[in-house]
Amino acid sequence: PTKVIPISGNSQACRLLLQPADAYIDFGERPVDSENSFTVTLSNAGTGKCNISKVELDDARTGPEFTILIPETPAIPFDLQPGERYDFKIYFRPTDETGAGGSAGVVTIETDDPYWTNGKKEITLFGSSKEDNTPVCIIQNLAGGAPYFEVEPGQRENVECNNGGVCSNVQMIS
Length: 174
Known about the structure:
By secondary structure, this protein is an all-beta fold. The protein has no helices and twelve strands.
């Protein structure tokens, strides 16, 4: 005998990708009162829309050195269509109180993406302050979240690129 079992599903799935993929941003050691930023990107790689219902700093777990800049449009909550991306910035400005022990923070993102645990992801933030205000150039590896290396004035570093000499995955962030 043959038995027919009805099956239903949604082939129009949301698939939200986060950059930094490891959900960790280390601003490194920064001079007191200098501001540094990192752009976070959400992109929809699925075939259906993704609803973004929350993007915010968790005040209870975030030091005052961190702030977030959310674009005015689209206003949260909003739908991110397939192929679209959404960028927002996180800023770190250490104070005298930050110290070498650093400051931590958390950004919470909520969505209807079925692949995210409970529809939520948290980005962990960290940064610390330098005792002196010697400027530092930090090269950020955009394929990951952690600083690639720091270059102080008078110091020289070579950047190795594995894609034919074009360094498209690095960015100077300060």
